[in-house]
Amino acid sequence: MNKLITIERHFVEEQKLNPHATGELTDLLYDVAFAAKLVRREVVRAGLVDILGMAGTTNVQGEEVKKLDLFANEKIINAIGQHGRFAIMGSEENEGTIAPPKNETGKYVLLFDPLDGSSNIDVNVSVGTIFSIYRLTGDNPKKADINDCLQKGLQQVAAGYVIYGSSVVMVYSSGHGVHGFTYDPTIGEFLLSHENITTPKKGKYYSINEGSFHQLHDSTINYIDYLKEEDKETGRPYSTRYIGSLVADFHRNLLTGGIFVYPATKKHPNGKLRLMYEANPLAFICEQAGGRATNGRERILDIDPAELHQRTPLYIGSEDDVLIAEEFEQGKR
Ligand SMILES: O=P(O)(O)OC[C@H]1O[C@](O)(COP(=O)(O)O)[C@@H](O)[C@@H]1O
Ligand SMILES: [Mg+2]
Ligand SMILES: [Mg+2]
After folding, report:
1. What pLDDT score was predicted for residue 248?
2. Which of 151, 294, 298, 303 is the most buried (most CB within 10 A)?
3. Is 47 labelled a binding residue?
4. Where are the alpha helices (DSSP H) in the chain?
């Protein structure tokens, strides 16, 4: 594999797979990669610049916001908005939709989680950025509104995430498989490092926050007990891995096989994670890699969204593992 393929070059090659492509999707994916470089620049030296700790505000989710959440949000909105390729945006950190500073011509919608894994920011554990891209439903960018943001995950034209970890990796799909690029700071480029990622049909890891045990429903507890039983034939017991950053837990399981579950709980009756800028983009990637993503009953990509910040239970990862988890969730086991 030629390691000197930049992500920009890859975007252009992918564009050739679509005879109707105008190059605009390539340009806006380029903008996303550029914004990731800007966020990375601060994340890797977060302790040296004043972006650790609380911002002192609360977001629409009722969560206390970290300085880095706001920093990443602002960087992404400005870095991407200035080119006018997006007609409308939606972010975890903004209650309403965002009209880019310049939006004469954009025919795309960008939904994003600027900084995922906020609880891990101050302790140097991997965090990430997650993004989801749709086409406008109409053809006049000036008329873009919330309805353009509330499309089923199936309608995504591209999605991906960036992990700011021991290395910085950007993973994306525009419907032609899943590809990962590692950032090389010596040349400032994302270079192809994981071509055509496919996820194993069955894994050996499970990622569930067992700390909230008393919040879990019996169906989830029964599933966890099942994973912990001794049974060589089915590869049990599974090992538990829970970083607490969705993007990092998802990425590990994508590469090695495994399942991430954030179920409906007594505290979060609709789950904790957000459909539009966490579950949908990762479900798009997961399915492109041969995995499965549901809310325990329904395919994530088929869910008809009603609100920008709506939550959903999430069962995502290796197909066989998710199917078994669904059987427990539905009381069939
Ligand atoms: O602490 P909990 O309840 O396990 O929740 C952890 C989950 O919450 C999140 O931090 C939510 O995302 P944000 O950090 O973007 O708000 C996920 O990354 C993670 O999987
Ligand atoms: Mg998040
Ligand atoms: Mg976030």
Report:
1. 98
2. 294
3. no
4. 7-15, 24-43, 67-81, 146-149, 218-228, 246-256, 280-288, 319-329
Please give the CATH architecture assigned to the domain spanning 205-330: 3-Layer(aba) Sandwich (3.40)
Does domain 7-194 bear CATH number 3.30.540.10? yes
ipTM of the complex: 0.98
- 68: nearest Cα among 53, 90, 48: 53
Ligand 1: which atom is nearest the Cα of residue 209? 4
The whole-number mean pLDDT for each consecutive block of 10 residues of the chain, a chain of 333 residues, reads: 82 87 89 95 88 87 90 92 84 93 76 96 95 93 93 97 97 97 96 97 97 93 97 96 97 98 95 98 98 98 98 98 98 95
pTM of the model: 0.96
In the chain, ranges of CATH 3.40.190.80 domains: 205-330
Where does the chain hold its CATH 3.30.540.10 domain(s)? 7-194
What's the confidence (pLDDT) of residue 144? 92
Cβ 321 under 6 angstroms from ligand 1: no
| Ligand 1 binding pocket includes 272 (Cβ within 6 Å) | yes
- CA atoms of 40 and 69, how far apart (whole Å): 13
Report d(CA 261, CA 203) in Å as an integer: 14
Q: What pLDDT score does 186 carry?
A: 95
Ligand 1 pocket: which of 69, 113, 116, 122 to mutate (most atoms <8 Å of CB)?
A: 116
How far is residue 110's CA from residue 133's CA, in Å, rounded to a whole number? 5
Ligand 1 atom with the shortest distance to the CA of 249: 20
Q: Which atom of ligand 1 is nearest to the CA of 247?
A: 18
Q: What is the residue with the minimal CA distance to atom 6 of ligand 1?
A: 244
pLDDT at res. 214: 92
Cβ–ligand 1 distance for 271 under 6 Å, the answer no
pLDDT of residue 82: 77
